[in-house]
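Troubleshooting: if your tokenizer reports a length mismatch, compare against these two reference records.
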Amino acid sequence: MSRSPLAVLANAVSSENAPALPSSAADYKTEILSGLTVALALVPEAVAFAFVAGVNPLVGLYAAFLVGIITALIGGRPGMVSGATGALAVVMVSLVADHGVEYLFATVVLMGILQVLAGIFRLGKFMRLVPHPVMLGFVNGLAIVIGLSQLEQFHDPATGGFLSGFPLVLMLGLVALTMFIIWIMPRFTRAIPAPLAAIGIVAALVIGFGLPVPRVGDLAQISGGLPEFSIPLVPLNLETFGIILPYALILAAIGLIESLLTLNLVSEITGKRGGASQECVAQGIANVVTGFFGGMGGCAMIGQSMINVSSGGRTRLAAASAAIFLLCFILFAAPVIEQIPLAALVGVMFMVVIGTFAWNTFRVMRRVPRVDAIVIVLVTVITVLTDLATAVVAGVIVSALAYAWQNATRIGARTYRTEDGAKVYKVQGPLFFGSADGFSELFQVETDPDHVIVDFEHSRVADQSALAAIEGMADRYTAAGKRLVLRHLSPDCHALLRRAGQLVVESDDDPNYGVAVDYDVQPGALGGGH
């Protein structure tokens, strides 16, 4: 029995799904330090995405905190980290430019409501339709996007152009040092997450020696107060709704696709399943709250989620502590955080890129069908050039069309004669829009006897195109004065044919359906098969 929408919502926030906590003091330390590492990496990302969207940096930081803390507590996959993302920011920029930031807040609220509805009606289950090649393309595309986004940190704060000369060499050297520390440290100790240790060591070197490299404070001042509740200052009328609805639909779709794909990825890494519908509800609640507290909204972040998982974060405590640390940075520790060199954070993100990219893709592509290899490359390229939602939809469409074509070529029939002289066509393969033409070409109406049986024991009637093909075949046999019957229809096929308007004529002596019954065909129910 399916549950009511309210039951689904209640389940998402019930005590049954309460935050999973560490089981030992050592695990508590690991989770909290992992959260601190994630929080440090969140700062430049949130600030940068706020700039992309054309809003104040605090709008991005508040979104990172609010979305992060709510999804950490009630999300569908412990270990995931959510916050302000670039995939959403690139959609928001035109809305902010044309109508102002208050319309953005209203859009984020509506976006959240749509996501809650998606969770209540369990639309997240459709993510199972995403093929594995699309997942590989998504992971690789996001890894490339994360890597390319770090190039922005190589700008000179004074001139706005790219660093050059000694400052560039120094920046690259510190990035390489950060990456080396992250790589080598686990060989000696895991007491402290390697990314956190690398950030601390490189920051100490830069601050101690006064090295002239860009720091977090060069991006923006991150100090501020607590986010304040405020109803978006927009007219409550249909005109406003017409403005924000298209943006809300796009943002909700992008946010859920990225969040659910990240959920699947984290689930694969940790070996634990996640709740797709629960994640949809959590993302929606987080965005509704964020819109009322002056945040730009957000979704799951694959880069920060990978930092968390690689640092040992497995429970809700890690992601929740990351959000709390971020708020503490804003309220109390802004002067300290602003001194952290961007090179250290870039090095951490580059290591995330290396760990996220599916390097076995190059080996897999030589062994999988050519269409799957094309889908992997296609999704990767579209993710880099446009956005994640477009890439995933394109990948699913191409995969579906390829699957349809492969099945369309499998239609065939084996023929034989019965003792009473009837000719039997034993159809092989599914009958649907892709195979309808091939199905029609199987029959030899002119040379067939007066009694023809089409046996669907090894076939299925799938759609209206299949119905039209059967009716068209029936027209041809009726015009030739011959009898055509269908045999071995499965219950679902039989029901589909009956709904078409008595396309199947049942005999009076067979009131109960049986798969071995022969059915006469009534042509013309679908308009002559056209």
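Reference record two:
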Amino acid sequence: MRRWLLLLPLLAAPAWAKCADRPYVLETEEGLLGGENLSYEEGVLLVEGRACLERPGLALEAPWIRYLEEEGGFLAPRLSGEVEGWRLQAEGMEGKALLRVRLAKGSLRAEAERLLLERPPKGEGVFLEAPAYRVRAERATFTGEEARLQGFLATPCPCGEDLRLAMEEALFRVDTGELVGDAALGLFGLEVPLEEARLNVHRRPSLTSPFVLSATETGGLTLGLKDLPLPQPGEEVGRWSRRLTVMGTGLNSPQAALLLGLKEGGLGAEVQLGYAAGVRAFGEGVYLAYTPDPPDATTPRLEARYAPSLRLEGLALTPFLRYAETEARTGLTLGAEGSYRLEAREGPFRLALTPSALLALYPGLGHDPYLVLGGSAEVGYGEGPFRARLLYAGRYAALSPTPAFAYEERAEFQSLQVEAGFAGASLLYRLENPLGDRVDRVEAAYAAEGLGRLVLAWVRGSYAEWRLAYAPPLPQRTCCQALWLAPELGLGPEGPSRYGLTLRYYDGCFAYEVRAARVLQGQHDEATGYTLSFGLTLR
């Protein structure tokens, strides 16, 4: 007996979305089959001319579709359509499976070696490409709102899988891009079980290396782990709230110390051994610290502070109540610091004003109130390739020139900056601190996609120097290995005044950076000496 049941003209066909408008429509076990021409021979039904196969959640079109009566399967080339809300293209259909399938929904792109036309459809050999991750799965079951993935692996690396998240089974919420499941985090050959983990394929993970290695001529060597993540079940990958710090600072110097710290979200505690030994705890605007032997006269032996941060649209306000014991004085500080940002735009013009103020009172200390007034004003213009900006910022101590404690001190300054640019070229003039240690800077820069960025600057402070810096273009993410070098050089009246080099190596997943610099002659009180730092970030 034939497996297809009805062969009807258009007016008698059910009201399906697309197939109902074909001259010939028939019902099969896999859905409605229709087309403009129909022929039948030896158990094979051939539908041609806008041939379609449709059922709830599935709509396919092809140049022709053959329906094999005995097997209940299909043959068709070059299919397109929709499955469970995903746009679909397939190279062919054999039996009850689509072959070499490409799927798209929003910014998501997926491929499957096979897509079985079950209810719901099931994919085999699935590869999903999203803005922040590449995902592959052995099998996937698609519905309109979610997909269940088996044998799942996700990586944010553009090439390779040195950093990866593996799950036996994961639930993928299509609309939000969220993946949930019991996972193991892989880093090179190391596997770390995470229990239940989450990630969002639209959001790039905030992953930086906790390893710290840096050195300065005066501050010694810093070595250790800073903010090492300690994942907890249910947290999103890269947004772990619990972090550990074990770090040595000032090594090879008289200021050597060991810092141990643990924090979770906004709460945390630190213990420092050696130089400036003490303990600190903080969280939700509260800060407590005890340093039995302060390293200088401004560091409190005992400090307790409550300073909540309040925000409302453009207003940022931080009231504070503080008790401190220093070598010079002991007592309370009552004050507040705040700013308000006003912005206006009219066509290509932009205006931004940010007044700010800090007021500190010292009940019982006999010290004059400390008031600092400041802010910034910015005028900008941008239309097409042309842009211009004028920025002024400053700060002025209106009452006592110095506060009772170093915590609330805000140094006076003034700065003026004028810049203009056209396409990749720009010219800048900046005047810093004209009432004190004045520094003038004139800078010309040019940036192009294939060239990188070249900067030539003339700086005059305690002496005049020329500075030259070049940063090549960043390698494309499709480039799995690359070297990147950015040199900088300063020349003063007596020869080189400073030099530096930033070296990065890009592999398929990470960018490894080493930066070395040396200041031979500083501007005003700028520290001289060398600095060395190492960094590791996700590409």
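Descriptive notes for reference record two:
- The radius of gyration is 33 Å.
- The mean pLDDT is 90.
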